[in-house]
Design goal:
The complex is a heterodimer of chains A (119) and B (107). With 119 residues, chain A is mainly β. Chain A is built from no helices and eleven strands. In chain A, the strands form two sheets. In chain A, strands 2, 4, 5, 6, 9, 10 and 11 form a seven-stranded mixed sheet that branches. In chain A, a hairpin with a 6-residue loop joins β5 and β6. The N and C termini of chain A lie far apart (40 Å). The model of chain A has no long low-confidence stretch (mean pLDDT 96). In chain B, strands 2, 4, 5, 6, 9, 10 and 11 form a seven-stranded mixed sheet that branches. Chain B has a four-stranded antiparallel sheet with strand order 1-3-8-7, with no helix packed on it. In chain B, β9 and β10 form a beta hairpin. Chain B has 107 residues and is mostly beta strands. Classes of the chains: A mainly beta (119), B mainly beta (107). Chains A and B meet through β5 of A and β4, β5, β9 and β10 of B.
């Protein structure tokens, strides 16, 4: 069974950093691109970025480019979202998903981890 | 960026009704559209990929159609469990973008 579990959310002050993790099981992580999405309270879905398989280059939304970094450690079945310079507008429920790159849709999603940026 | 304009933003229909949700792209995106269903308090669920392909396990009352700039999600016969918000998403051009969502309610 494919399973994705996000962790690392919480309350963080503006300007600080936070790292989210997506722990995967039930499939070979190395074979898939992995994506992050977010949803601000009461708002719609927003694509954050994705990291490719086989080399792991990443793409990002303009709103997070230069501040957020997606990385992967296939041997440990985990994908990270490093978030630096957090802003209040980054407050959201963050989801990781399998796929969501150029070739595969975001077929499996975790349940999300909430990040609240507030002083 | 490709803008995905989705409408209506909300609708209310009776069980058994046929429901259609539209999504228009600001440029030609071929068939690179996915449709997601998000029930309250849950993660999104993939329904349709590449405009018209039904994700395995999704009921056959769901269907997708379209190419270029015009896309439709249809529910042939609305069921109570279909109450959710539906989103289209394009993955033709970076950044990948979503429509604003359609909140579906049952009368």
């Amino acid at each position: 069974e494919v399973r994705l579990v996000e962790s690392g959310g919480g309350l963080v002050k503006p300007g600080r950093s936070q790292r989210l993790s997506c722990t995967t099981s039930g499939f070979s992580l190395g074979a898939y691109s992995m994506s992050w999405f977010r949803q601000a309270p009461g708002r719609g879905l927003e694509w954050v970025g994705f990291i490719r398989s086989n080399g792991g280059t990443a793409e990002y939304a303009a709103s997070v480019r230069g501040r957020f970094t997606i990385s992967r450690l296939d041997s440990s079945n985990v994908v990270h979202l490093q978030m630096n310079g957090l802003r209040t507008e980054d407050t959201a429920l963050y989801y990781c998903a399998r796929g969501g790159g150029e070739h595969l849709p975001a077929q499996y999603w975790g349940q999300g981890t909430l990040v609240t940026v507030s002083s | 960026d490709v803008q995905m304009t989705q409408f209506p933003s909300s609708l209310s229909r009776s069980a058994g009704d046929r429901v259609t949700i539209e999504c228009q792209a600001s440029q030609d995106i071929k068939k690179k559209v996915n449709w997601f269903q998000q029930k309250f308090g849950e993660a999104p669920k993939l329904l349709i990929y590449d405009s018209s392909n039904l994700e395995p396990g999704v009921p056959s009352r769901f269907s997708g159609f379209g190419s270029g700039t015009f896309f439709l999600l249809t529910i042939a016969s609305l069921q109570p469990e279909d109450i959710a918000t539906y989103y289209c998403q394009q993955y033709h051009s970076l950044p990948y973008t979503f429509g604003q969502g359609t909140k579906l309610e049952i009368k």
